[in-house]
Amino acid sequence: xxxxxAGSSTRAAAVLRPAFxxxxxxxxxxxxxxxxxxxxxxxxxxxxxxxALFFGLVAVFSVKAASDHMAHxxxxxxxxxxxxxxxxxxxxxxxxxxxxxxxxxxxxxKCKEGAE
Length: 116
Hints:
mainly alpha; about 60% helix; single chain
């Protein structure tokens, strides 16, 4: 049994070697659709134009969305309801303005103005 396994790799190589030689000498591989090189280059140029067009459209709509967002950026916390479960402090925070949340610039301004 060991004799069959040891010789199997050399037999497989002998069988597959002519197939590999034929594949290597077959020449240039054609395009998948059988199109000529000129047609392929024309399609590539067309897709470059499509890509540039869509990049421009995405840029225009991105600028429009950003300008719309910046124009309507007047959100005030005064309009928000103040629920009883919000801003409940069991102990003060460990920073200078102990009643302010970690990232709350409006509260920090009020705290600094009140301290002066």
